[in-house]
Amino acid sequence: MDFEAVKEIIVDTLACDEEKVTADARFIEDLEVDSLSLVELHMALEDSLGHSIPDGEIGKLQTVQELVDYCNK
């Protein structure tokens, strides 16, 4: 999954301003993501990837690029 695909999921799921979603954007500090939003993002990513993601894994990631890298493992 490339950066643009992950960015689209983030923008659609979290209603973030598209310009704020950069590779270096931090979820909590820059995108103001809370715990409920992380759960919503987790579910949206599972749907897109077609497999489950262990609980708590998304919360360990701090930036959008870390999420992109995780999705490509």
Tell me the count of domains: 1
**Largest beta-sheet characterization:** none
Order of helices and strands: HHHH
The name of the CATH architecture is Orthogonal Bundle
Rg measurement, Å: 11 Å
Question: How many DSSP H or I helices?
Answer: 4
Write down the CATH topology.
Answer: Non-ribosomal Peptide Synthetase Peptidyl Carrier Protein, Chain A
How many β-strands, per DSSP? Answer: 0
The CATH superfamily appears as ACP-like
Assigned CATH class: Mainly Alpha
What is the mean predicted local confidence, pLDDT? 95
The portion of residues forming beta strands comes to under 5%
Helix content range: 40-55%
Q: Roughly how many Å apart are the termini?
A: 10 Å
Shape: globular
Outline the low-pLDDT stretches.
none
- What structural category do the secondary elements indicate? mainly alpha
What does this 3D model show about the protein?
The protein is mainly α. It contains 4 helices and no strands. α1 crosses α2. The longest helix is centred in the middle third of the chain and has 15 residues, at 35-49. The chain is globular, with a radius of gyration of 11 Å. It starts with a helix and ends with a helix.
